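Q: I have three molecules that I believe assemble together. Could you output structure tokens for the complex as a whole instead of separate predictions?
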Amino acid sequence: MATVEQTDDTAPGEGVRRRDFINIAAVSFAGVGGLALVYPLVNQMNPSADVLALASIEVDVSAIQPGQSVKTIFRKQPLFLRHLTPQEIQAANAVPTADLRDPQTLAERTAEGKPQWLITMGVCTHLGCVPLGIGPGENKGEFGGYFCPCHGSHYDTAARVRKGPAPKNLEVPEYVFASDTVVQIG
Amino acid sequence: MVRFFGALVGMGFIAALLWSFGWGVNAQLTETHTQSVEHRFHQEPRDVAFSTDGPFGKFDRAQLQRGFQVYKEVCAACHSLGQVAFRNLADLGYEEPEIKAIAAQWQIEVPSINPDTGEATTRKAIASDHFPSPYANEVAARAGNNNALPPDLSLIVKAREGGAPYIYSLLTGYQNAPADLPAEARPGQGLHYNPYFANLNIAMPPPLTADGQVTYADGTNPTRENMAKDVAAFLTWTAEPNLESRHRTGLAVLIFLLIATILAYMAYQNIWHGGADRRVRQTGPLDPENQAKSRAAKKEAGIKG
Amino acid sequence: MSFPWAQQYSPKNSFMRWMDERLPLPRLAYNAVGAGYPVPRNLNHFWNFGVLAGVALTIQIVTGIILAMHYAPVGTMAFDSVEHIMRNVNQGWLLRYAHANGASFFFIVTYIHIFRGLYYGSYKAPREMVWLLGLVIFLLMMATAFMGYVLPWGQMSFWGAKVITGLFGAIPLVGEPIQAWLLGGFAPDNAALNRFFSLHYLLPFVIAGVIILHIWALHIPGSNNPTGVDIKTPQDTVPFHPYYTAKDGFGVGLFMIAFAIMLFFFPNALGHADNYIPANPLSTPAHIVPEWYFWPFYAILRAFTVDFILPAKLWGVLAMFASILLLFFLPWLDRSPVRSGSYRPTFKMFFIILLIDILILGYCGGAPAEEPFVMISQLATIYYFAHFLIILPLLSKFEKTLPLPTSISASVLHGEKQEAAPLEVARPKRRPRAAPAE
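A: Yes, here they are, computed for all three components at once.
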């Protein structure tokens, strides 16, 4: 290629290459500038700073007795906090994971050393309805966990899907216990 | 026809204007005009430099923290900062635990609802809260301040002609009314003379009364001048928190545009005066002429393909 | 379009041929702004400003659509939603400052574009329709800009809306019902804010539509040029592309540099501090002024101070509207057969006076309503009306004009106009690099 370039440079049309380069460079710069402009136009649709700031919440769970549960809001979606009774923990651990559609143990779905705190999103993994079973007297489904009335998905006491069309267990958000009674979600 | 009616309309406007002009001249000649009191005693903001000035301007984080301290300990008693959230303090260099502590210890609590009874109550602020207002509403604010409304300070630097130097001048500009100030312009009950304020008499009592009113952690001498300057810098940040990224982006964009425009000029000159013997667009490696030359050169050099 | 020597579009490949036979969009673009549009070879840089106005409109529409994704047209939320854009939305400050300053730049380039037309006689036959459509665009721009300035719902927004709608209150008999109808109430509030937002979103697209007509009407006779002489032979023209696309590319670069300097380093210099105070119906700002681009018209409005047969307020409103409407009659007020001001020495002198006069009006419009500004704006308004309604019609009767060049290429050859492109453009092996085009 080097020989070719030399030949061109000494050809009668000397300067042609430099001028071509200028035109191509000018058009390329305009193209790069146009592409750079697209970035703010697209990025503005991402969650804004105030929305992101609310994406992390702290909940005081000290008042929730075993067997009770609380529904709160996390990222504008329902969040279920459930204080499992020893029986419920036992029932969840008794299920062989091999039988599950989305195999997970209760220990994998709760914080280390706190298996009694079941914290999940209240969003059915089928099409996003809010399952029943969190409020007092609501239908907990066949497995004593949650029941989604939209298309009949049943979740057990570890909020794992056991029956119905839902493909996955209820999502467990990221959370840490800031202290014994305060859990920071997100 | 158009010109005839046009001229008539024009004459009409001109006659009405001459009439107004005549009365104006008459008024100028017959009435005695004195400069208004505001005009004579009002002063322009003092010249003061801030680190944010100019196209390379940046925030001075330490100064912003000092200014925030002045706001917290002096201004916050009366002035809200409604557009700013505690989480924004991260811009000032505070870490997350510090911000949480500042929010939790803020002397004014955030209005809330008791979850059991539904009654109005207050709770401690959290990082995502905006700075709570010291007054429940405008009526309460006026009632507590001799019927004057302490303005929200979030945008005050952009909302006043003169910006940060004006805030600084106003805070340090309290003085005794000059002896030749006419009686009707003298500060009345609850007002204070300040030549930097638009009508000379401001309802806000002097907020920075003595050196050492706050104690700076970084050892800066808390003179009135320093406190006023620091809080003016802090309010520049509250009004324009994106100033630094604006300046940074601006410089990058300008450099890019300069190069692009020089290239565009060269391409323009090239097209108008350079490419005389051919269509300009069909140039470069794809130009049939160039391709033919390439092929010929390759053949000569014995390169295949 | 109308020149027999215009280059014909020929599809480059089979897909483009397939396309051309079904939807000839590439052909349309080729004939409108491509190599198929022959343009006088001697256009100077004042001819960049039409394209620049199009660029400015594009900036406004793109940033505006995005701002509307975050803005809330409700009295209690509008101001805070703008601050939300400035503080929380990703790059929101950039988009909002671009929109606010973009409006000013749209007016700057449009004013230069209009004055270029005034000086070179671009409003004269056969381009009257281009001029009339341009004025329609200008009126739509003013309405759009006014309603857009109300949306942030600051003090100037509120009081601007109140004062401008108050102008309609000056109309005898029906004035007050019209004002209430415009606002949907007795003072600007939610109803006014919401309808202004709706119309502010709509009108730019109407402007874009009228721009298409404006360009269509331009392509019938072709572009005017600094000599004002008609195009006669192929030697008078060059294809729009690549010659004027390259020249406009350079112009757009300069425009973007000026725009970036204002946007990034002086974003609030063209605005007003009071608009960072939330709207307050109980407190009027000390000094209500519109945005700078309305200042000349605001000065005309305020120039009438004493009743003269009709009430002074009505005179002001009439004069303000007349100052724009009279431009619609300009092609028939100025009947001089010579288009370009370069060959009309007396016209040139009056044109320069008009330019200074309008700058003075602008200054007075931005100044407080006190002496000497009121008297100066009265004299300046007198000249404004005299210029268009009396001087121009008389000039075309009595003026002695300079001899015109026989053709555009003749003027280029003899070097009469510096802005002319060298004829050598079409000849091989001779590249007069030393003589730049402008």
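A: One point stands out. The interface with chain A takes residues 62, 66, 69-70, 84, 87-92, 94-95, 249 of chain C (CB under 8 Å).
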